[in-house]
Amino acid sequence: MSFQSPWLLFTLVVLAAAIGLWLYAERRRARYAVRFTNMDVLASVVSGRSWPRLLPPVLFALALGVLLVGLARPQVERMVLKERATVILVIDTSRSMQAEDVEPSRLGAAQEAVRTFLDQAPDRLRVGLVVFAGETQVATPPTRDHELVRTAVDEIDTFLVFGGTAIGDALETAVDLGKRVTEAELSEEEEIALADLGARRSFAQATSCDEPGPVSILFLSDGAQTRGILQPLEGAALAREACFPVFTVALGTPNGTIPRGPFGGGGFNPGGSDSQRIPIPPDPETLRQIAEITDGEFSEARTADALENAYENLGSRLGREPGETEVTFLFVALAAGLLVAAGVLGVFVAPRLP
User: Fold this and answer.
1) Maximum distance among all alpha carbons in the chain?
2) How far, in Å, CA of 113 to CA of 181, rounded?
3) How far is the C-alpha of 121 from the C-alpha of 118, rounded, in Å?
4) Do strands 246-251 and 257-259 pair parallel, antiparallel, or not at all (unpaired)?
5) How high is the pLDDT of residue 41?
6) Under DSSP, is residue 294 helix (H, G, I), strand (E, B) or coil?
């Protein structure tokens, strides 16, 4: 814990001195004997000096101490939302995602995992969705309306994408989407003038990659590249250049298969025998390299639970950075509670003369 105004903590010394003076005055007063002719009055006063009588002043002093600590504006370290934080979700919707080696299917498990991610993500985090197979499509641009993203995830089968797996092109689309968002929100004050070039570059372009940028890409796929213009590592290089870390998740097991289609390719053929099925193992090595190049993280999920746990973990981390949050209100609330308790006890235990 740290304090924004630590010098105000010296007021605790003043409070301690005041308490010390009060105790000293109480001890001096106890030295003087007072003669009572009424023994009933004497018994009442003596009984009033029992320990319950001390509770109200003790609680009052404790409340003052807590309030003085609150005036110093205490802060705690926690993960806080980054400025302009954005997460681009990229989901593979190729035919191989219909495999049922992950229940209920790879695509169904991916949809549920994204819903878990949205549940964990901060409300102010902007989330975009890109779906891809042989081609890519932006399902939702980055938005703080998480319900809109959730609706797109529920209707992910309605997006028209051709067969194959274009990992490199999907990365390029996600990077371009992230660049458009960051550059659109930059004000003129945030632009950096480059006099020697006679031009101006945006903050996102001029920032080095010593620290992650405001955009993160969460990439889920289950197979190797089979289509597309860019190769996966070429797409990773674009993300690295933009300072966008890519968090990759390889979904599926080595035993995953899909039915062979009527023309030899993967397709829907529920009644097909084992000899009519195509093996579709995941390609974790490519996704691992993408994460390493972009300073992201790689995860491998062979079950729906493992995938959901990975997305839950990332949902609570992506778009956040270590920071300090002021908790003055907690100390004020605690001080108020102690003052109320002191007042209530004072009513019941204060000594009364008969």
Assistant:
1) 115
2) 25
3) 5
4) unpaired
5) 54
6) coil
Regarding the domain delimited by 83-318, which CATH topology (the fold level of the hierarchy) does it fall under?
Answer: Rossmann fold (3.40.50)
Euclidean distance between CA atoms 220 and 112, whole angstroms: 13
**CATH 3.40.50.410 domain extents, the chain:** 83-318
pLDDT of the residue at 314: 80
Q: How far apart are CA 121 and CA 184, in angstroms?
A: 23
Give kind and range of the element (H or E) at residue 320. Answer: strand 320-326
What's the rounded Cα separation, in Å, for the pair 43 and 38? 9
Contact, 224 vs 277, CB < 8 A? no
The rounded distance, in Å, linking the Cα atoms of 301 and 38 is 85
Residue type, 229: I
CA proximity to 314, closest of 121, 144, 111, 143: 121
User: What's residue 232's pLDDT?
Assistant: 95
Long-range pairs, 47-55, Cβ under 8 A, ≥24: 47/351, 48/350, 48/351, 48/352, 49/351, 52/345, 52/349, 53/349, 53/350, 53/351, 55/342, 55/345, 55/349
Residue 201, C-beta contacts closer than 8 angstroms, at least 6 positions apart: 191, 192, 194
In whole angstroms, how large is the CA radius of gyration of the chain?
32
pLDDT of residue 284: 93
Q: Give the C-alpha separation, 94 to 278, whole Å.
A: 14
Q: Which two tokens stand for residue 313?
A: 């973990």
Across the 354 residues of the chain, what is the mean pLDDT of every consecutive 10-residue run? 80 84 72 53 53 77 86 73 79 91 93 92 89 93 94 85 86 94 61 40 49 85 89 95 93 89 49 68 93 94 90 72 73 87 76 48
